[in-house]
Specification:
The complex is a heterodimer of chains A (about 350) and B (about 325). Chain A is mainly alpha-helical and about 350 residues long. Chain A is built from 14 helices and two strands. The chains are: A mainly alpha (about 350), B mainly alpha (about 325).
Chain lengths: ~350, ~325
């Protein structure tokens, strides 16, 4: 990410073990202190997390949790590869989910075609909304870092209004739309898993391929390393930013659509954002600094951590929000430590 | 106009301005010494939580305020040292801090009080309101300030204090020098890092006050993620105000009124899902409009510098 490390006395005198491992260890220690303070043996809490995530019976749950989380990891990782940050994943996910629900419920036609139309519509709508933030930066100079986040609030608010008033399923009394017709739902694979898993896996493979083997991927990486050099090299930076943000938002829209069409079968207000897929995904992407393979691995790791968190909460009464604390400590540790050898002044 | 601006609206606007104003002063201070503080949201949330805990434990609002400031300062150590001594990327650190604040307060809420979502208890003493009957009939300003917490008065006093310190004192000159020309400041014998660390910690105390106003001002309750984007609005106020406390305060007034109007619209029957978004829409509109007037200047150096991985602009500016 940064320039070649300069021979600075501090950096030379210190051998560095793999930083991610140290970060996880550090987070486990701080988290262990928090668990201890709540009167539970940390070793037991961590054992429950491990069993909850990796016991054979729990694999489907872990994968089911990983599907949206890895999806949102890609949402964050793609712009980050080019040095951009998309903080608006929540709004993009919500737009995708809502559009998918509307298309699937109201578009007539054979089920599978409706499902495909719903997925495409969700991706396009969310992609355009994300591209809006990039357009604001390139045309109006409004920093995308802030605008992508601020744009989330109107999207979430309007979606919440739509599902509470015009499109509410009045027969249930809850703020949710009618059910998606059975034909338009994503095919179930095995228990909780559905075709969405394969879709996200295919997108992840495609992102890896584009990153490693294509000009588009090379240009994006070049932008991330040195914006000016990419510009001198002939990359049209404004267009690139808009396209990248479109792709990032489109994946967020697909994640929303997959949740609606594959597991909830309707748009339910508030439940899409409570698992914080967007922020876990962002942290996973930051962990790998946008490098797709590392980001996907980190996303899988966080998915396992969070799935294990449910088991920990059930068995030891330690709140599973602890896993969010652990994730942010990992990121903070790496962010602070990463800078340690960086020579900037 | 008389129907639109009512005493109640003024009072709720001034109340809504206070936390954003305190947080944006924190952002202004950090920005002036060259640290881009995007963690205001998290610092406020920590302050709000510690404020409620402090008030609950000590049975006094002052205890709550002290706890809020202390906790926010301790929390700010991450940014103060991470972004200066360790030279970490301030954007990544701030994102991590915001998420840590959100997770940690939710965790502690469950472990300490056994509740999730919101926590309220009769033992939590909220901030007393200063009633000034002499001004309560003066239209607009009097309506707004006749019945507010000490923190509201402190916030506006701090606008003046920060302005004077920044622009009229040797200390302010050094602070601005640290931000604008760190090398020159260093040459003059100023310890740039020490100035940055201390400033970020002082700013943390201000963000803690903002959080205390949020949880102990109008209500006496802590709710998970109760800052609800106010820290981000404060970040925008700092940008719009070009790190000038007076201009940032003006932006905060705009956002505070947008907030108060949304409450008013809600009372007239509009669904709150729609009215709640008005501060954010106003914020976005202000960002776009302000750029129309002054091309490109909006993206302050540290925002440009803050883009992780993108080291094109900052390197040149830092020299």
């Amino acid at each position: 990410m940064s320039a070649a490390p300069q021979p600075d006395a501090r950096a030379l005198s210190r051998w560095r073990p793999p930083s991610a491992a140290i970060a996880i260890l550090f987070a486990a220690l701080v988290g262990g202190a928090l668990v201890l303070a709540s009167g539970v043996n940390p070793a037991e809490a961590y054992a429950q997390i491990f069993m909850g995530a990796f016991a054979l019976d729990n694999w489907p749950n872990t994968l089911n949790w990983a599907t949206p989380l890895v999806g949102m990891t890609l949402v964050a990782a793609i712009p980050l590869r080019g040095g951009m940050i998309n903080l608006g994943g929540d709004g993009q996910l919500i737009i995708g989910a809502l559009v998918a629900a509307i298309v699937a419920i109201y578009l007539p036609g054979p089920g599978p075609l409706v499902a495909i139309a719903a997925l495409i519509a969700a991706a396009v709508a969310a992609g355009l909304y994300a591209a809006l933030a990039a357009w604001g930066e390139t045309r109006h100079g409004v920093p995308m870092l802030i605008s992508s986040l601020l744009l989330s609030y109107p999207a979430v608010g309007v979606a919440s209004y739509i599902v509470r008033f015009p499109l509410r399923d009045t027969t249930t009394g809850l703020p949710q739309t009618a059910l998606v017709p059975e034909g338009a739902r994503l095919m179930a694979l095995n228990g909780v898993l559905n075709v969405g898993l394969i879709l996200i896996a295919a997108i992840a493979a495609l992102v890896l391929f584009v990153d490693r083997r294509t000009v588009v991927g090379y240009e994006l990486h070049m932008r991330g390393i040195n914006l000016r050099f990419a510009g001198y090299g002939g990359v049209r930076l404004d267009r690139q930013a808009m396209r990248i943000m479109f792709v990032s938002g489109a994946i967020a829209g697909l994640v929303g659509a997959i949740i609606v069409l594959g597991s909830q079968f309707r748009f339910i207000d508030d439940v899409l954002l409570t698992p914080s897929y967007t922020w876990s995904g962002l942290m996973a992407a930051l962990l790998a600094n946008g490098e797709p393979a590392g980001a996907i691995l980190a996303g899988l790791f966080f998915a396992a951590l969070q799935t294990g968190g449910f088991a920990m909460q059930r068995e030891t009464s330690v709140p599973r929000v602890l896993t969010m604390v652990l994730q942010s400590i990992v990121i903070l540790f790496l962010a602070v430590r990463h800078g340690a050898g960086k020579s900037r002044e | 106009m008389s129907g639109l601006i009512t005493p109640f609206l003024m009072q709720s606007a001034v109340q809504a301005i206070t936390p954003i104003l305190l947080a944006s002063l924190a952002g202004v201070l950090c920005g002036r010494v060259g640290v881009f503080n995007m963690a205001l949201e998290g610092q406020m949330l920590i302050g709000a939580f510690a404020g409620v805990v402090g008030s609950y434990v000590t049975h006094s609002a002052a205890g709550g305020v002290a706890a809020a400031m202390l906790a926010a300062v301790v929390f700010s150590l991450i940014l103060a040292y991470g972004a200066t001594i360790f030279r970490g990327d301030s954007v990544v650190i701030c994102i991590g801090m915001n998420l840590l604040a959100s997770g940690l307060t939710a965790y502690l809420l469950r472990v300490m009080f056994g509740v999730s979502g919101t926590f309220s208890d009769p033992a939590i003493v909220s901030l007393a309101k200063i009633r000034i009957t002499a001004i309560q009939d003066i239209p607009i300003v009097g309506w707004g300030f006749a019945r507010q917490t000490p923190l509201t008065w402190a916030a506006w006093a701090l606008v003046a204090i920060v302005s004077v310190v920044l622009f009229k004192t040797p200390l302010g000159l050094r602070l601005r020098g640290v931000g604008e020309q760190p090398d020159a400041a260093e040459t003059l014998g100023i310890d740039v890092r020490a100035y940055r660390v201390v400033t970020v910690l002082v700013a943390g105390a201000l963000a803690g006050l903002a959080g205390a106003q949020l949880s102990l001002g109008a209500v006496s309750v802590f709710a998970e993620d109760m800052t609800a984007g106010r820290g981000w609005i404060a970040v925008v106020a700092v940008m719009l105000g070009r790190r000038n406390p007076l201009y940032a305060a003006a932006a905060c007034v705009l956002f505070g009124f947008a907030d108060a109007f949304s409450v008013k619209l809600q009372s007239q029957g509009l669904p709150n899902q729609l009215t709640d978004i008005s501060p954010y829409v106003v914020t976005l509109a202000a960002l776009v409009l302000s750029h129309r007037r002054r091309t490109r200047a909006l993206v302050s150096p540290e925002v440009a510098a803050a883009t992780p991985g993108g080291m094109a602009e900052p390197q040149a500016d830092a020299r």
